[in-house]
Amino acid sequence: MLNKILDRLPKLQQITPVYAVIAFMSFAWMILVFVWKLPSWLYFQKINEILPILAYLFMQIFLDSLLYLGILLVVCMILPARLLRDDFIPRGAWAAFGAIGTYIAYVNLLFIWGDSVTQWTLAAMLIGIALAISSAYVKWLAKVAVEASDRLVIFVYILIPVSLVSILTVIIRNIN
């Protein structure tokens, strides 16, 4: 039974580049927002109060990126293999780009336009789905996704240790 479930999942060599896309987009967005807010925090907080905030953010984004990957893997298990698992890197990368890009667009546009942002986020989500589907038919889309995700794997080697240190920091802070 367990072997049948594991057979429906892509190989680890296919999962890692897709996770790299998810992690890069999530962490890049978090770091951008953190750097945007940092100057105002420096007026009323000391650096030893700001660094734990950064640790909490790294922990949250690490767990969020694992959640995104988990959702994508569950979808991969549910769908027939030819729809997602067989071309997991390009389709998964475009799906991750669409999902996280939709979230980023939603958050940005919500502050600009208020409640009238729903049609824009739906459009961004549909674009992500369309890119994921069309990457099977348009070879250069698949190549772009594979090349970009392969190059982003280096960030996984940086972000996972930093995230684990952040999780350790959060655990130690909450024990005291």
Short structural summary:
This protein has 176 residues and is mostly helical.
Descriptive terms for the model:
single chain; 176 residues; mainly alpha; 86% helix
Topology:
Elements: H1 2-7, H2 12-44, H3 47-78, H4 88-113, H5 118-134, H6 139-175
Structural class: mainly alpha
Q: N-to-C SSE series?
A: HHHHHH
Measured distance between first and last alpha carbons: 44 Å
Low-confidence runs of at least 5 consecutive residues: none
Query: What general outline do the C-alpha atoms trace?
Result: globular
- Mean pLDDT figure: 88
Query: In oligomeric terms, what are we looking at?
Result: single chain
Radius of gyration over C-alpha positions, nearest whole angstrom: 18 Å
Q: How many individual helices?
A: 6
Tally of DSSP β-strands: 0
User: What is the helix content?
Assistant: over 70%
Task: Report the major sheet.
Answer: none
Describe the model.
The protein is 86% helix and 0% strand. Helix 3 crosses helix 4, helix 4 packs antiparallel against helix 5 and helix 4 packs across helix 6. It is built from 6 helices and no strands. With 176 residues, the chain is mainly α.
